[in-house]
Amino acid sequence: MAKSKRACEKLQIAQIRPATKGSGLMLLSFFSPEIALSAKPGQFIEIGFDGPTLPKPFSIHDVYEYGIVEILYQVVGSGTQKLASLNDGDEIVVFGPLGKGFDLPEEGPVYLVGGGTGNAPMKFLQKKLAKLSPKTFLGARTKTLLPPQEMFDGNTYFATDDGSTGFKGTVVDLMSGQLLPPGHILACGPRPMLRGLWEFSKGFGVSCQFSLESYMACGVGACLGCVIQTTSGYKKVCSDGPVFNASEVADAL
Amino acid sequence: MPFDISVELFGQKYANPLVMASGTFGCGEIYEDFLDYSRIGAFVTKAVTKEPRAGNKPQRLVETPSGLLNAIGLQNEGLKNFIEEKLPNFENYPCKIWVNVSGASFEEYEHIVTELNPFDSVSVFEINVSCPNVAHGGMNFGTSCNDIRQLTSNLKKISKKPIIIKLTPNVTSIAEMAVSAEQAGADGLTVANTFLGMAIDTEKRKPVLDNVTGGLSGPAIKPLALRCVYQVYKAVKIPIIACGGISNHNDVLEFIMAGASLIQIGTAIFKYPMCPEEIENGLLEWGKAKNLNNISELRGVAHDA
To answer: Which residue of B has its CA nearest to A57?
Structure first.
């Protein structure tokens, strides 16, 4: 895949707010035509801000032609807590788009599978693959950690561990309960979810791509901190990934 | 007259005192999209070892207050790949390029220096005797005055380029190590490398890093590194390249006033890949406001007090 043009800029937060009223997820947007126009689903950006030593990586939730980029994130540690406390107009450093995105299938059926913070890239992916009418399955621990349903098309199914919204159980349980014809799986989520999905996909998936989460520092392939063991040795999640063929990384999940 | 921040060192001209630290800048290819390399004096490559090294098992990183703990384990593709894949790009860069050399034996260091001697695009060998994250070599050499003396003197005999010894701060007296390197003929010293540390995951009740310990970098170690530079400057005459938590132009000034000729930027680039340009601007404005002619006038001035 050709390397896309990457930008690094200090800019202002256009808008930062909870994804919906009462949501445990935050939606942050900023104006960067360079990133908006070159980003591919599954790619991410790094955001640097006052406080943490390291920038924080976020997958791209959505982009708009007029240059707005959105990220959707959950407050999980002191870094995301600090980011959530910023206001519209506050300055941040943004660089990206980073990493390798998903290889977009040319024909269906296509299944988009997200879990937890891995739901974030699914909106962008759904938009880019609209022609193929993908079926989307999104899961989270509980209702407030699921992205708002209205963000997604009508072909989207929801699962929560506690049953507070949609199917009670995991996305893999949810998919297992449907009679799905074999198709391409594009997934992002925590490693236990991907492990389950890998088992499910054997003898089912036509192709299976996993976007991985990993503890990162630089996000650009410099520090070698985020590596994962693959079938061909250590690979950098940030720059060789974050999207990998599932078979390459399955043993390390 | 504009404030001159260029530095003359080892008969080489550096556009400014900013050097990108080893292990944070790949071999130059990483930050090309973000940073104008004419705005840095030099960069140091990721450590090169004779044979490829896979590095340590994950988890390799964790952020700590104002710091970053890492235990990468010198992952690199080895000397052959470095010569074939990385060196050819060096012609394209407007800054100086230093190669960070690491090994598990004296012979390994000597082999790498010999093989890289012919390449004009390499300006300096920075000898890594301070990696805290490998079982053999690395910091083992850097904690013994005798080993530093022997290694430096061996390399000086064969090297056609300046030899800079990158010292570890994880010793009782870094000044003694510095003196050993100077006596053996080192052309300069990088002061210093990361400080040995660790973190424990209280939920899992085990160390966060698979390697158990890691090297601490970032603003957390800046006062510690500054103290090291100050002490080494008192003990030796050879140039000092400061390294440790430097993130803004004021940090740079502190280290130069403590005695550094050049300074390295490491962890700070992760958060803002264009930070060297911002730091350069900050230095230029500062010097202009103070009506200074040359940044070298500031070297070691904190010792006069």
So the answer is: B271
Instruction: Residue B127: name the closest of B211, B86, B184 by CA.
Output: B184
Put simply, whether the predicted model's pTM sits higher than 0.90 gets the answer yes
Look-up of token digits 């900023």? A30
Q: Which residues of B touch A35 (CB under 8 A)?
A: none
Q: d(Cα A72, Cα A28) in Å, to the nearest integer?
A: 6
The verdict on a CB contact (< 8 Å) between B219 and A53 is yes
Backbone torsions φ then ψ of B220, nearest 5 degrees? -55, -30
3-state secondary structure of B154: helix
CA nearest A51 in B: which residue? B66
ipTM over 0.90: yes
- Kind and range of the H or E run holding B81: helix B79-81
Q: pLDDT tens, B97-107?
A: 999 999 999 99
Instruction: State how far the Cα of B152 lies from the Cα of B136, in Å rounded to an integer.
Output: 18
Facing B26 at nearest CB: one of A53, A95, A221? A221
Q: CATH top-level class for B7-55+72-194+218-303?
A: alpha beta
Backbone φ and ψ of B301, nearest 5°: -60, -25
In order of start, what are the domains of chain A with their CATH numbers? 7-98 (2.40.30.10), 110-211 (3.40.50.80)
CA A207/CA A204 separation, integer angstroms: 9
